[in-house]
Write a structure and sequence with these properties.
The structure is a single chain. The protein has 2 helices and 4 strands. By secondary structure, the chain is α+β, with helices and mostly antiparallel strands. It has one domain: 2-Layer Sandwich (Alpha-Beta Plaits). The protein has a 4-stranded antiparallel beta sheet. The structure holds the ligand O=C(O)CC1=CCC(=O)O1. The site of ligand LWBT4IAB has 7 residues, from strand 1 and helix 1. It catalyses: (S)-muconolactone = (4,5-dihydro-5-oxofuran-2-yl)-acetate.
């Protein structure tokens, strides 16, 4: 199942910069692991925002919830999820 996920990152300015750097490094490693596994199909930066738009390919709502809630930046993110279905005019059926 495919999902369009938007993540808006809002890290409090009061957080220790060294801790922030550590969390961001863990986030990168976690995201690249999921990309290599084919579960995190795309990640795009939203121009001018500390936000991304991503496409996930996972088996269920529960799996997506588990993956998203394990993001190191999860406590500092606003996340929205849209499940995707095939469009009848698409020449690619997934
Ligand atoms: O910078 C972001 O958009 C947050 C993020 C998600 C995965 C990653 O590596 O960074």
């Amino acid at each position: 199942m495919l999902y369009l996920v938007e993540m808006i990152v809002q890290i409090p300015h009061t957080l220790d910069p060294a801790l922030v750097a550590k969390i961001k490094q863990k986030e990168k490693e976690y995201s690249q692991k999921l990309q290599r596994e084919g579960k995190w199909r795309h990640i795009w930066r939203v121009v001018g925002e500390y936000a991304n738009v991503s496409v996930f390919d996972v088996a269920s709502n529960d799996e997506l919830h588990a993956l998203l809630s394990a993001l190191p930046l999860f406590p500092y993110m606003q996340i929205s999820v849209k499940p995707l279905a095939n469009h009848p005019s698409s020449i690619v059926q997934e």
